[in-house]
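Tutorial sheet, problem 5. The two components below are modelled jointly, 602 residues in total.
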Amino acid sequence: MVMIACDGIDVPLGGRTVVHGITARLEPGSLVGVIGPNGAGKSTLVRAMLGLTPVSAGTVRIGDMPLRQWDRKALARALAYLPQGQTLHWPLSVGRLVALGRLPHLGPLSPIAAADRTAIEQALHCADVLHLAGRNVLELSGGERARVLLARALAVGARGLAVDEPLASLDPGHQIDVMELLAGEARTGTLVIAVLHDLTMAARYCDRLLLMDRGRLVADGPPATVLTADNLARIYGIGAFIAADADTPMIVPLGRVPASSHKDMA
Amino acid sequence: MLPFSLPDTRHRLLMPVLGVLLACAIGASLALGPVALSPARIVAALAGQGDPIASAIMLDLRLPRLLVGLLVGGMLGLGGAVLQGYLRNPLAEPSALGASNGAALGAVIAIYFGLMEWHAVALPLMAIAGGMLALALLFALAGRAGTPLTLILAGIAVSTLASAGISLALNLSPNPFAAMEIMTWLLGSLENRTLEHVWIALPCVVAGALLLLGSGRVLDALSLGEDAARALGMDLARARMPILLGLAIGVGGAVAVSGSIGFVGLIVPHLIRPFTDRSPSALLAPSFAAGALLLTLADTAVRLIPTQAELKLGVVTAFLGVPVFLVHLLKERHQW
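Model answer (structure tokens):
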């Protein structure tokens, strides 16, 4: 089981602090959505939680140990990461690319073992890309590529999974598939952190939402308490049709509201 | 059973095939030359029981030349494969980091000041020193946490500075003969190499190759980008050191004994890639073997092509390399 706890972390990026004083404890077995406008610091927060970028204040704990005490390989086996908008560099086959997810489990010279093969096949199957296994990754469509990269992250077999915009360029059917998959992973005890832009998907599948704005955590809780008309207007500057606590929650952006006036009110 | 092959189960034949080809090329390189020797005389000479002429040709001329060619070709091929993987750039070659030009500058300085009259090894030793200096400068410019892009930029700077130094030596050379000697050396050749050259190149290439061969896993992870590679447990800052050191020592040592032989490091990984799963790690050992093979064949060809002055190896590799590379790029263009 993996638990991630941030205690008052500031994260600098390129000389300025882009994440300010965030405290949150993310429990295993939950699907946590990180939402907020562009440039709110969502990806930076997630990267700091994974130890990919240093914090300038506060501490991150993974499980019962501070992040910096973790051995790199052990951490890589505990937490898998799907970065946002990855570029791929070589014309690898899909199967070979997904096999890269097993790297944290391999010794310097050990070959891919039977257990690794099972994990790779399972990951390909889960992300619905088994039929693409022999294809060149550079010749896939955007949505196929996104699913292949998700399969690569799943192949790690980690108890913590952080995915940055996993729904980008997916068709509606595969968006639902991916969210079902992430929710399913959470039900088996995995901590899943997903940076999302689709508020309906966030409302429907996430157990908890962290709403960020300009580097600060401005709301934290179940979707129905975070996705309020006031928050949407204040943070996103939009008016929306909201049925956040319905059986199938729905958030449909309707139009811009003058954000500045709301911010003044706040 | 998976409907695809994993890396360890495909392309098993590549290394054995390269091995057989390499054995043939070694045989050809020893057997062929301006002086025709019968197989019996060759074997006797290699066994140390030949007649004086055959022994001199085999042990003093062909064998050192073959060994230097194998070491230099292998190192350039491996260096190219590692650097293309590390920089994630199919156009990278070992000279991209400036080690080749730095080594060439060291050698040119040795020629310019006539240091070889003092001792024949002065030139290769100066070349290795030049390669190491270039690396030190590269580190100073790229900083400790250099990304591939800053490394390329710093490499261009170091490389250009070293070639400016070479031009300066040509510019200031006291007489046409000195300039000619520098030019000839820069063209790259395996002519008149002795066992001393083998002993200089061998430790450099072995050390360089050992440092580079261990980087396969990091290079594989890097094909997903730096963040993903680090999330897969790779310490990129620590992985950079053996790669840069291996390139400087290995390529510096290779350039020191052969002059500048271009294109081997660039084309060899491209020739090998279609026969692998195209992951960077799968290229390393085969690129060493294929580089050694290519240079041995090219050097044998150089000796057999009847020209007034023997063709320089660097000239031949460039003439062979450019068309091969163009055809390859046109064929594989859609994949980049």
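Marking note: Chain A touches chain B through 46 residues (CB under 8 Å). Full credit if you identified this.
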